[in-house]
């Protein structure tokens, strides 16, 4: 994206290092999945709250635990794609990304409360979703900062 300059000044072009952005996005996906796993293990193993698995499935739970972690990783990759799109197409992309991700995180934190799960499970799931959303948002904002270069072009 090129930003026009005032008369006689060079324009500024935004160059996105896609490799750096997506490598950071992949690392963010790993962090998101690990936050989900740590949250579930804490809830089930320490707090004795049944999250994402029926009672009696043990601390790890069932296949839903793995699937939830994979969904969190997928959310990070989708967010990376959103960030890439915003970086190459919009002014103030990190501000828009922050708002979009902030609102998506609020939705993810509210979502457990529309299920028939126990109140404890709803609260713990909401907190895990909140932690994952905040991690994705903050990590990708930092990655985007390091993946963008501004180049001056001739007027």
Automatic annotation (TrEMBL):
Transmembrane residue ranges: 21-47, 67-89, 96-115, 121-143
InterPro entries per record: DUF6069
Entries under Pfam families matching the protein: DUF6069
Keywords: Membrane, Transmembrane, Transmembrane helix
This protein's name: Uncharacterized protein
